[in-house]
């Protein structure tokens, strides 16, 4: 079973917003939210038309996100392309 090699980069972050930071700036909508576990950026998921969480990864190289949806306890590493459980 493959293991994410970037979990050590996770920080104790404060979410930058309670919605997608970029969609809020433009007045757009989102489907689900993702939290960057490196800096706290909140972006929309890839099912959202703007895909701001993935765009944030490409702009910053911050590899690890987690779901920012109530009751969801999973994370994802873009570089290793792996899902993992969060605590």
Structure report:
There is one protein chain. The protein is of the alpha+beta class and 87 residues long. Helices cover 17% and strands 22% of the residues. The longest helix is centred in the middle third of the chain and has 9 residues, at 52-60. It is globular. The relative contact order is 0.23. The model has no long low-confidence stretch (mean pLDDT 96).
CATH topology: Herpes Virus-1
In terms of quaternary structure, what is this?
single chain
Number of helices: 2
Q: What is the CATH superfamily classification? A: Zinc/RING finger domain, C3HC4 (zinc finger)
Q: Which percent range describes the beta-strand content?
A: 15-25%
Q: Level of helix content?
A: 10-25%
